[in-house]
User: Fold this.
Amino acid sequence: MKALVIGGGIIGLSSAYYLQKDGWQVTLLEKGDLTDNCSFGNMGYISPSHFIPLAAPGMVEQGIFWMFDRKSPFYIRPQLRWDMLRWGLQFIRSSTPAHVERAARPMVDLLLLSKQLFREWAAEHEMEFGLTERGCLMYYQTDKYEKQELETARKAEQLGLQVELLGREQLQTIEPDLRPDVRGGVLFKDDAHVDPNALMQQLPGLLERKGVRILRNTTVTDFGRRDGEIRTVRYSTAGTAASGELEPDLVVLAAGAWSPKLAKLAGDSMLLMPGKGYSMTLERPVKKLHYPCILLEAKVALTPWPGRLRIGSTMEIGSINNRILLSRVQGILEAVPRFFPGIQDDPGFRELADMGQLRNQAREQVWFGFRPVSADGLPYIGFSRNNSNLLLATGHAMLGMSLGPATGKLVAELAGNKSTSVPAAAFDPNRF
Ligand SMILES: Cc1cc2nc3c(=O)[nH]c(=O)nc-3n(C[C@H](O)[C@H](O)[C@H](O)COP(=O)(O)OP(=O)(O)OC[C@H]3O[C@@H](n4cnc5c(N)ncnc54)[C@H](O)[C@@H]3O)c2cc1C
Assistant:
C-alpha cells in the first residue's frame, strides 16, 4: 500500500517514519530543500508541562491588551478575512475553563507518549540530537504570574507530572546569574529538550536509508478526487518545468501553516492560522545557563545547548510573509537582561541587541518560522471529513516539536485502522 506525505517538517517526517515502520511504501513531498522550516529554529522543548491549550480563559483579553504594545510577544494583524474571522470566533468560543479541563488529560498523554518515543529514537538509531531530560524552569517576577504558575503546577501534579516549587535562594544556587529579585520558579521535571536543528538534519537521511522516497523542491499543487477519495496528487518541481502525478492509497497532509490551502484543494476546510515566531542563537555564550527556561512575564524562552544559547518568542497571527518586525525582536532581547542581567556582558548578545546593526543584519541574525495554530489550541490528527483516505496531521502551534513522534505514531495507527496508543478523539479534525 502506498502512502504519500505532504510536508517535510517534524510532523511529516515523523508520520513517514511510523508509516514506513508499519509496512507502507512511503513517498514524502516537500516544497523546500529540507534545510529550513518551522521545525528547525524552534526552542527544542519537549513540554509535557504545556498541557494547557493556547485557547484558554484570559487569553483573548491578554491578546487584545498586547495588540497595543509594539514590543509585546503576541500580535494579531487585524484583517478583513473570512478565514481569520472564523478562526478568531472559534478561538474565542474555545477559550473556556471547560475546554482547558477537557484538553488536559489527552494533551498530557500525547506529550508523554512523544517523550517516550524520543527516548526510543535516541536509543535505537544513529541519530544524535541531544535529548536532555533536565526539566524546564518557569520564572516569575510578579504576583500575577506567580499565582498563575502555581495554579498550573497544581494541575500538573493532579495529572501525575512532577513539579518542584523553587524560592529565590534555591534559584540562586541553580542559576547564579539570575536576578536576585526574581520571585521564584517552577521546575517541571518531566520536560526535556532536544537540538531541533540536529534532529531535522538527520531525520530525512534516516528515512531515506529505511526506504522512504523523499522528493525535495516538489510542491503539491492539486488533487484529483473521485467518490469521496483522493485518487491523484499533482505536483510541480521547482527550477524545472517538470510536473507529475502520483496515485497513493493514503495521503497525509502535514504541510504546517500551509495546510488550509491544501485542505481546500481537497474539498475540506481547516481553521488554522500561521503564528510567526522568532529566535536568535548566540554562539559560544560567555555565561552558561544550566536549565532551559521561560521568562513568564515576557513569554521569552531560553534554551542552552553545549556552546550555544537560543532565545525565542513571539506569536504574530496573520499571514505568511518574510517581514521581520524589529520592534518585537527588540522586545524579546530587552526581556532577557530583566532576568539575567549578566547577559549584557556577553559580546555576542551585545552585538545582537545593537538595534542599528540588527536593522542591517536582521536576515542573518533572526530566524523565523510559522507555527500552524489551530482554532482551539489542540492539534488536528485524524481523517478528513470529505476524503476517506486523507489524514490530517497539523495544527500543533507551539508544540509541534514536542508532539512530532506521537503524532506520527497516531497517524500510522489510524492509517492501519488500529486502536491508538493514546485516545485521539480530542484531536479529531472534524470537532468544530
Ligand atoms: C520561535 C518558535 C519556537 C518554538 N519552540 C517550540 C518548542 O520549543 N517546542 C515545540 O514543541 N514546538 C516549538 N515550536 C513550534 C514548532 O516549531 C512547530 O509546531 C512545528 O515545527 C510544526 O511542524 P510542522 O511539521 O507541522 O510544520 P513545518 O515545520 O512548517 O513543516 C511543514 C512543511 O510543509 C511544507 N509544505 C507546505 N506546503 C507544501 C506543498 N504544497 N507541497 C509540499 N510541501 C509543502 C513546507 O515547506 C514545510 O517544510 C516553536 C515555533 C517557533 C516559531
The longest helix spans residues 97-124. Residues 50-95+132-191+273-373 form a domain with the D-Amino Acid Oxidase; Chain A, domain 2 fold (CATH 3.30.9.10). The CA atoms of residues 300 and 313 lie 5 Å apart. The chain has a mean pLDDT of 95.
